[in-house]
Design brief:
The complex is a heterodimer of chains A (128) and B (458).
Chain A (H helix, E strand, L loop, with lengths): L1 E4 L1 E4 L2 E8 L33 E4 L8 H10 L6 E4 L4 H10 L3 E3 L11 E5 L2 E4 L1
Parallel strand pairs in A: 3-4, 4-5, 5-6
Antiparallel strand pairs in A: 1-8, 2-6, 3-7, 7-8
Chain B lengths: L4 H7 L5 H16 L5 E3 L3 E3 L4 H17 L8 E3 L9 H4 L3 H16 L28 H10 L9 H10 L1 E3 L13 E5 L6 H15 L4 E5 L21 H5 L5 H14 L6 E2 L10 H4 L11 E4 L11 E6 L3 H7 L8 E4 L6 H11 L7 E6 L1 H9 L2 H7 L3 E4 L16 E3 L2 H11 L3 E3 L2 H10 L12
Parallel strand pairs in B: 2-3, 5-6, 5-9, 6-7, 10-11, 10-13, 11-12, 13-14
Antiparallel strand pairs in B: 1-4, 8-9
Classes of the chains: A alpha/beta (128), B alpha/beta (458).
Chain lengths: 128, 458
């Protein structure tokens, strides 16, 4: 078990299976809010669903409207259960807060592999 | 981060769940961008009003906050919507879109957001003071407030501007801090800039190169006016004849420059030597004008810095705007749609358009988009009647960039806005011509683009 300490952007507790992206994620146009599937062509997670996963990625990108895409995913029951970033930026942070998705940043995301069982708790990320 | 007792109470939920969430947003952004405190904002401008951009997701969010009884505590005004809220049928907007758009503005209004629906709040009475902190969202308005009016705002996303309006605060980072307003690039412009399209082409070229930097412009070539001075409003200073023939851009030209840089780049602040109010304080850093003769487009320059910690300025020389015009012009002859008013038209632009249209009839669809306030004044002056007698339409509350233009069946557009020309192919699926207001009006009348294009073709 590894305990990675970061900074709580949206404080909360959640657990799930990690889905790790080596590339930044832009939610508007990048993730379909009605299926939860990553639809950005050429994206390393293309075709994968973010629903119910602890979504781990370096940082956000793209349009600021992406905050609302996260909110819509949440309303559709397709949001990630938690978000872990290396360095967060405004779009994903705001999206996580308005959707009440626990989010931590300033974490060494290279310590997490897709499929790991991950718990996010406050500023802690616990990897089994 | 240091919070006052009042701010901490908001964060802990003393004023209800929505204020708490709004304060969480403000504080999280402060943490992310290393702010040490919050600042009180004088006003907020809420971008993300068009249903085209918000979609169902954004609408649901706004309605949820609205139904919780959320209310703004500082003046907050809405960016353009996806349609003229009164004349949307004439625009050809589908009624389903209109219904959803109306729900968006209703939600905003019930939170106390003023339905100015404009990217030019500074033209309709919302003029910030120099040094005032703001939470504005639309990129051209942010640029104008920072650069021309010397107010201080970052470019806020929709929810973060709304959060600032609800809490009355924003985090003190980025352009709220004096040191972040320091120039990063020196732009020597050695070609004349006689009209607003030239300022737009310049902004396009510079924004593409400087990203989110802070350009410091030196306008080195004389730019004789193409229009007589009374038709365009000169920003600041004297309006004497000698003054107006020199390098002092009009308000419309300044608007075009900032809008273009906010589109091709993420420039939220620039300085223009001898023109914008904060330029003088950085003059030592930028060095003397004309001190370098290189024509290389980009080169590092250890320009006269006034402190050892000053970062070096990147130097860019602009000798020609041809590359900008080439990038913003599709090879089109026939034009069926002419769109003016990005940013929203000033009264001066409407006077010029009306004068050019008098005695003519347009072949192409002509939209002039502006704020409700400017439109009403233009109506009172008889300008709207003159433009509409020629077959043009003056729409308020909306613009080309945020209206669902792709669904309206147009094939080829002309615009005098570099920003609109930059976005049209991607946002609206439209090839376009980009030139002066005069060229655009001519294109509307003839249904063809007759001006000189980037390849010198007639």
């Amino acid at each position: 078990m590894k305990r990675l300490r970061g900074r709580a952007i949206c404080r909360g507790k959640a657990q799930g299976t990690a889905l790790v992206s080596p590339a930044a994620i832009g939610f508007l146009g990048g993730v379909d809010p009605d299926t939860g599937i990553v639809v950005e062509l050429e994206h390393p997670l293309h075709g994968r669903s973010v629903a119910g996963r602890v979504l781990v990625f370096p940082t956000g990108k793209g349009s600021t409207v992406g905050s609302y895409t996260l909110y819509r995913l949440c309303k559709n029951g397709l949001a990630p259960t938690a978000i872990v970033n290396a360095r967060s930026e405004a779009i994903v942070a705001v999206g996580a807060i308005i959707s009440s998705i626990p989010m931590v940043d300033l974490v060494d995301v290279s310590q997490i592999r897709t499929g790991d069982a991950v718990t996010v708790d406050g500023e802690d990320v616990i990897v089994d | 981060m240091r919070l006052t007792a009042e701010e901490r109470a908001m964060l802990e939920g003393a004023e209800g769940p929505t204020v708490r969430k709004a304060m969480q947003i403000v504080v999280a952004l402060g943490e992310i961008y290393d702010a040490v405190e919050l600042v009180a904002v004088g006003s907020a401008q809420i971008a993300g009003v068009s249903y085209k951009n918000l979609g169902e997701a954004g609408l649901e969010f706004l309605e949820e906050w609205a139904t919780q009884g959320t209310c703004t505590r500082v003046p907050a005004f809405a960016n353009p919507a996806g349609m003229d809220l009164q004349r949307w049928r004439e625009m050809g907007i589908p009624s389903e879109f209109a219904r959803q758009q109306q729900r968006v503005v209703n939600a905003l209004a019930s939170m106390g957001v003023l339905l100015t629906c404009t990217c030019t709040p500074y033209l309709v009475g919302h003029v910030p003071r120099a040094g005032e902190h703001l939470a504005w969202g639309e990129s051209s308005a942010v640029s104008f407030a920072n650069s021309v009016l010397a107010a201080r705002t970052n470019r806020e996303g929709g929810p973060s501007a709304l959060a600032a309006a609800i809490t009355g605060r924003t985090a003190a980072y980025g352009l709220h801090l004096t040191e972040k307003r320091r120039p990063t690039h020196r732009i020597q412009v050695r070609c004349p800039l006689p009209n607003e399209a030239d300022y737009g082409a310049l902004g396009y070229l510079v924004g593409r190169q400087v990203g989110d930097g802070v350009p410091y412009f030196q306008l080195l070539a004389e730019s004789p006016r193409e229009v007589p001075a009374p038709a365009a409003s000169t920003f600041g200073g004297s309006r004497s004849r000698e003054e107006s023939s020199l390098r002092r851009p009009t308000q419309e030209q300044l608007m075009a420059l900032g809008a273009a840089m906010g589109a091709s780049g993420a420039v939220a602040l620039h300085h223009i030597e001898g023109v914008t109010p904060e330029a003088a304080q950085w003059a030592g850093l930028a060095g003397r004008s004309g001190s370098r003769s290189s024509t290389a487009s980009v080169q590092a320059c250890g320009a006269a810095a006034d402190a050892s910690s000053d970062p070096e300025l990147i130097e860019i020389a602009i000798d020609s705007l041809e590359e900008g015009y080439a990038a913003l012009n599709s090879p089109l002859d026939e034009i069926d749609f002419v769109s003016l008013g990005c940013p929203h038209s000033t009264l001066g632009d409407m006077q010029r358009a009306a004068a050019l249209l008098d005695g003519h009839r347009v072949k192409a669809t002509l939209w002039i988009t502006t704020s409700r306030g400017v439109r009403e004044t233009a109506e009172r002056q008889g300008l709207v009647a003159r433009i509409e007698a020629a077959g043009g339409r003056v729409f308020a509350d909306t613009c080309l960039v945020v209206a669902p233009v792709e669904d309206l069946g147009f094939k080829a557009m002309a615009t005098n806005s570099a920003k609109a020309a930059f976005y049209a192919p991607g946002h609206s699926g439209l090839p376009r011509r980009f030139g002066t207001l005069q060229q655009c009006i001519r294109a509307a009348i003839k249904g063809r683009w007759a001006g000189r294009d980037s390849r010198g073709l007639a």
